[in-house]
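Summary for the lay section of the report: proteins are chains of building blocks that fold into shapes. Here we show the chain for Tyrosine-type recombinase/integrase and then a coded description of the shape we predicted for it.
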Amino acid sequence: MNTNSTDFACLVTGFLTDYLPHHRCYSRNTILSYRDTLKLFLRFLKEEKETSPNSFYIKDFKRELVIEFLEWYRNNGAGITAANQRLAALKAFSDYAQLEHIEYIAPLQNVSGIRAKKAAPKEVSFLTVEQMSSLINSPDVNSHTGFRHRVILTLLYDSGCRVQELCDITIADISLGSVATVRLHGKGNKYRTVVIADATAKLVENYLSRYRSYAVGTDFLITNRYHRKIDRDGISYIIKKYVDAIRQKDATFPEHVHCHMFRHSKAMHMLEAGINIVYIRDFLGHEDISTTMVYVRADNRLKNDAINALAPKVTEERDFPDWNKDKDLLQFLNSLK
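The coded shape description reads as follows.
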């Protein structure tokens, strides 16, 4: 570190290179997200406050400035949820700074005390069983590329994994015993093992014997056409390719199908099948069951819509008398103390 570095710069370095990875044991992706938040904050200082990072000190890191940054971020097109994620990163940095510079604990506590804005709950987007089946079975398994694409789409749905978890699966993570499983490397550097269907296991087994027979356990299960580890963009491209093909024949098929929709769809289908919400939580790797409850609320909305659509007209529709016209009753109610 340059001897002329500000205390703010020193704190940022310690926060990202020591505190988060070694004391909090955060994953690389989380650390990169926190880093990006601090980069955005520095950009805000330069563009809006005309303040160079070389002249910004921790004593200047105040509640009012952070709130102004969040407003700037939202005004530039960010949603409430995204702004709340940036706020969480800055509050974590503030908590760390309090430990390192106790003389500024009061103003830093004011930063840590900023409340996140409430965002409207997002609607869960998912495909029906029929739609998912149509999408997964689109690739032609008679070609190497088609077979690989079928494996990608099938595993993405059947394991309920996040897209990065799919990219990270190695051959050693696949177990094709009497009960087939796949080991997933999830958020927070945590692992979980999920059961996959027999049909999925057979598909993966054929894929390994046909195209990956010389691969070793540490090799990635899914590779791109250049035989390198596939990434999120590659999987998104594959999904879009088959969605576009389906929509040419069926215009009612959802146009925007993203990777996470496979995970949403699996959770909703499990719920519809009567599987316990606690098992679904563990299957998806959620730490808190409240995260999984979003699927229950979505399922309840669907059931409510179905009930209202099918409900018989038991009671006749009519105009009921206006109770406001009963002045004596109103006077009586108003007289009650």
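Put simply, here is one thing we learned. The radius of gyration is 27 Å.
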